[in-house]
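We emphasize that the prediction below concerns an isolated chain of 250 residues; any contacts that depend on oligomerization or on bound cofactors are therefore not represented. The input was used exactly as deposited, without trimming of termini.
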Amino acid sequence: MTDSAYALFLDFDGTLVDIAPRPDQVIVPPALPPALARLRSRLGGALAIVTGRPIATIDGFLAPERFDVGGLHGVELRRGSAVAGCEPEAHPALRAGVARLQRAVADLDAVLIEDKGCSVAVHWRLATPTDAERAQTAVEGVARDLGEAYRLQLGKAVGEILPATATKGHAIRSFQQEAPYAGRRAVFLGDDLTDEKAFATVNADGGLSVRVGGGETIATRRLLEPEDVRRVLLAWADGAPIDPEALPRA
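Result of the prediction step, given as a token string:
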């Protein structure tokens, strides 16, 4: 298949960059942003970051480059110059839930609340098992009380509450409704439980899913760690054949 046959969708944490103890401590290799820009050119613009992070945070990590981004699992969407943003004031119940979470874990120094405006993530990667259990119980309780308008998404030592309609799969489908993504085969790379639902969407639409890391998966291909992802993307950016089907099978 030619380069123009693919649309590339990339998760950020644990896929493009290695997981860090705190979300603000991830390290972006200097070669990565310009390589992504070169690869985007090869793909005729059909490259987007699809992440739980806000768009502004991704821009900060990948500066000075700016990419199409599905942020907050699709709550935010930027395609070219068109941006559908997050409006925290439209989520009063969630805002009250954030305040409740902050009170619930205030005495847990190793538990971090990441308030994203239209979603909230509770991280317990650095916490003791007892404190991690408390943090997870707290976020589960808030999510349950918020009802069907929101959903709880559990990942690697994190629980995130977000609007029920926000998924990475929906974000990918939204991108594919318009040029330059329309008519191309979607290729999505992700590493977490949160990405498995997007793998299901991509697989159902005839695309190609790539799991980064170990564990059970419905993805059809696998790379072992972000370093392997970066190696593949750098090679594609610099002229190697863009052939996702040649990646190792999951």
